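From: lab user (bench 3)
To: helpdesk
Subject: output format question, protein + adenine

Hello, I'm new to running complex predictions and I'm not sure whether the block I got back is the full result or only part of it. Here's what I submitted:
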Amino acid sequence: APPHGDKSAKVKEEAAAAVSSVDNRPISTILFIVAMQTEALPLVKKFQLTEDLNSVFPKGVPWVRFYGNYKGLAINIVCPGKDPALGVDGVGTVSASLVTYASVQALQPDLIINAGTAGGFGAKGASIGDVFISSEVAFHDRRIPIPVFDIYGVGSRKALATPNLLKELNLKVGKLSTGDSLDMSPMDEASIIANDATIKDMEGAAVAYVADLLKVPAIFLKAVTDIVDGDKPTPEEFLENLAAVTAALDRTATQVVDYISGKCLLEL
Ligand code: ADE
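Helpdesk reply: Thanks, we reran it on our side. This is the complete output you should expect:
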């Protein structure tokens, strides 16, 4: 019998081989999580996706899935859909975590792409229309000043590393901070600065939490609709730029999917 040291080395080798065989398979199923229909519809058109009318989701929920094949990839775009009572998009972390969970369970994707709009910090180099890929995501409105709970609240997680994709597409890279408000209170601002974030959104860290729970790699594509440290009021600036910036997001998301086509996770 081999000495114990050899055996454990062999077990380790086998474990490494098992991991890399998953990461070495070409990516086949992509799940986009997109909070607003306005952000999703241009992509649905671009990838020529069909709305799923026999929902994979529980009966009666407003969640919407579009699906189809594009360049050898099974593409899914899932949106939380319209709030049943109010008719507006179900933005924010609660809906995002639910649809991410249900979609991963139903579709078993190889990769999650959370795509959407974000506020950007001019002082950190963000401009309107920039599309960022986030290296790291965290929350800025979960303050729990008790040891260890504080770190849990911030919930910082790393995105899948995509060095080759970054090089190829020349995307801006920055940290993303997530909270359930469009505005920014002074307390939120302090947390965002502590998170070293360049952009802020309302879903990213929630998607990252679920992706981490279910062990699905995730990337975050965020297009800047408003400058948070500028002088225009955020709601007006956001609505004014939403359509044009969505077009930029759309172009980048297409480039990303084109790049992913035929590649495995380790090649990104
Ligand atoms: N999405 C677009 N702009 C935003 C902002 N300023 N804050 C949070 N989410 C956003």
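A quick orientation on your result: The first helix runs from residue 4 to 23. Let us know if anything else is unclear.
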